[in-house]
Amino acid sequence: MNTNTAPDFIRARIAADLAAGKNDGRLVTRFPPEPNGYLHIGHAKSICLNFGVARENPGGVCHLRFDDTNPTKEEVEYAESIMRDVRWLGFDWGDKLFYASDYFERFHAYAIELIKMGKAYVCSLTPEEIRAYRGTLTEPGRDSPYRNRSVAENLDLFARMRAGEFADGTHILRAKIDMASPNLNMRDPAIYRIRKTSHHRTGDRWCLYPMYDFAHCLSDAIERITHSLCTLEFEDHRPLYDWFLDTLGTPYHPQQIEFARLNLTYTVMSKRKLLQLVHERLVDGWDDPRMLTISGLRRRGYTPAAIRNFCELIGLSKKDSRIDMGVLENCVRADLDENAPRRMAVLKPLKVIIDNYPDDLVEELTAENHPKRPELGTRQVPFCKEIYIERDDFLEEPPPKFFRLAPGREVRLRFAYLVTCQAVERDPKSGEITALHCTYDPKSRGGTAPDGRKVKGTLHWVSARHGARAEVRLYDRLFLSEDPEADKAVDFKQNLNPDSLTVLSDCWLEPSLGQGAEGQNYQFERQGYFYADPASASAAKPVFNRTVGLRDTWAKERGRD
RNA sequence: UGGGGAGUGGUCUAAUGGUAAGACAGCAGACUCUGACUCUGCCUAUUCGGGGUUCGAAUCCCUGCUCCCCAGCCA
C-alpha cells in the first residue's frame, strides 16, 4: 500500500548507525507509556515505529516499559489496557516488559551519587517560590537560597525525605545546573518530589518519586536502549537527558531522537482531554467507538492491519501536521473491502409487497459472501412476498441520474429478482409512504432476466418475515471543526458534534446475522462496514456499529444541488 | 528583544548540488448484480519571501517572515 519506499529520517539514521557498527550492532527501542490513560491512535504511531523498527532489523528488540513515576495519576487498569492494546495491534514485547518503578532503588542510588558530587541539592522553597526563582523565558532565574547546602546536609535531608519526615511539597531534590540557562529545563530541574501516595506497584514503600527527566534517561540507560524515540516536545529536554547520563557517567548512553506527534482532523489527541470526555460522560467511556483510542477504534470495527497500514502511510518527520481523518477511514475501507464478508441489512425500512408472488412461498436464494473471493463461499437468503428495502432507495419523483426504485420503474433485488414498482401505499392522514406494491419477473430468479435486459439499479433487501431486528449505531466525527483546539479561548468541548451518534433501532438483518456475530466485521452491501458490538452482546437484539460508510458518489452528486 | 524545532501542490511524505516524485483528496471517464471495489486519464508546487555562491540550488550561505514547543514538585 505504501509505495514510497524511502525510509523515514529515523530509520535512515538507525540504518546508518547499524552500518557504522555503533552500539555493537545492537538495536533496542522502547515504547514507554505512562499508565495514566488508554492508548490512542497517536500512540499507535509510536508503537508501530518502535516495534516496527525492531522487527525490521535482525536482532532488533523493543521493550514495553511503563513510565510509572507519578502514583497520583496511574492505575493498574490503564497498564492492563495498554498491554491489551499493544498486543491487539499485533506487537509482542516477549519477555521485555519493564516498569520504571522497578528501578526506583537504582534511581535513588544515582540521586545520592549526584548529591555526593555536589550536583544535586535539597531545596526547601515552596512551589510558588520555585516558580518565581525560575525566571521567565527572557529573564534568567535566581539561585535558590538552599543551593549551597553542604553535601552532608543534603544527604541527611534527602534521607529524611525518604523516611517520610516531611510533608508533600516541603522539599524537593534538584539538580544543580544553571539558573541562567536559556533552556528552562536546565534551571535546576526537580529530580525527586515527596508524594505520600501509594503506588500501583510499589505500594507504600516510597513517599518520594523521581521526575520524568531523571527517570526516563536512566531507565533507557539501564535497559541499554540504543535509540530512544520520542515526540518533539521533548526536544529541549534532550540536553537534560544527556546531562544526567554524562554527569553520572552511566555505562551506557542512549540517543534520544524526536519526531512529530500525530494529529488528526476533527479530533483531540491529548490523554488529558480524552480523560475529560470520559469523566464528564460526554462519551460512553474510553472505548466509545467515537473515540480515537485503540479500544474505541477496536469497538468501532477497525482492524489492527488497517491501523498499522495507516501508521505506515502517514510517514514520519519533524514537521507539525494534521492528517485528514479520511486517510484513516480509507485504510479500514481498504482492509475491510478485501476481508469483510458481505451481508444485506436494511437500516431504514420500507415495506415492499410483491403482489404476484405466491402468498406462502419461501425461496432460499444463493448469495455470494464476497464478490472477489469465491473461496469465502455463499449463503442462503430467504425470499418471500414481503420484504424491506431501504427508504432512500425509493423516490416518487426521481431526479435525473437516480436509478433506484420509482413508480413504474424496474430494479434488481440483489441475488433475487427483477421487480417493478406498481403502486404506493400511504398513510391517509400523514401522507407518509407506508408500503410499495411491486410485481416480480419470475423468470429473473437470481437477478438476471433471460431476455438479457439491463436494469441500472440493484437494491439490497431483507425478508420481512425472516429478517432479524437489530439496532445500528451510526457514528460521525466527534468534533465539528478540523482543529477543536485551535481557539485557545474556547473550551474544546464547545466543538463537540451533537450528531456524532445516531441510533437506528428499527433495522432488519438477513437471518444469518441474527446471532453470534459479535466481534465480526461485515460489509452491509451498498452501505458500509459494520461491526457486531461485543459490548452489547447481551442486548435484546443485536447491535452493530458502523465502522465507516462505503464511498458514496451518489450522495456526493446529490450534495451538489 | 531567551532557547529549541519546523516551513515542498488542498493534505501527508520523497528528492541530501544535477533540473520537483509518490500517496491521499479533487475532477473526468470505463467497468459493474454493491452508485462499492478495480481501472484509465486529468488537475494542482519555479519548494515561505528576498538576496547570494554555482554551469546548475528544495538542497549550501546571508537575511527577513510565519508556525509549533518550553516558565508542573505532569509525562
Describe the structure in your own words.
Helix 2 crosses helix 11. The chain is of the alpha/beta class. The radius of gyration is 31 Å and the shape is elongated. The strands form six sheets. The protein has a seven-stranded mixed sheet with strand order 10-23-24-25-21-22-11. Strands 19-16-17-18-12-15-20 form a seven-stranded mixed sheet, with no helix packed on it. The chain has 13 helices and 25 strands. Among the domains are: 255 residues, 3-Layer(aba) Sandwich (Rossmann fold); 110 residues, Ribosomal Protein L25, Chain P, CATH 2.40.240. It binds one RNA strand of 75 nucleotides through helix 5, strand 6, helix 7, helix 12 and strand 19.
What's a concise summary of this model?
This protein has 561 residues and is α/β, with parallel strands linked by helices.
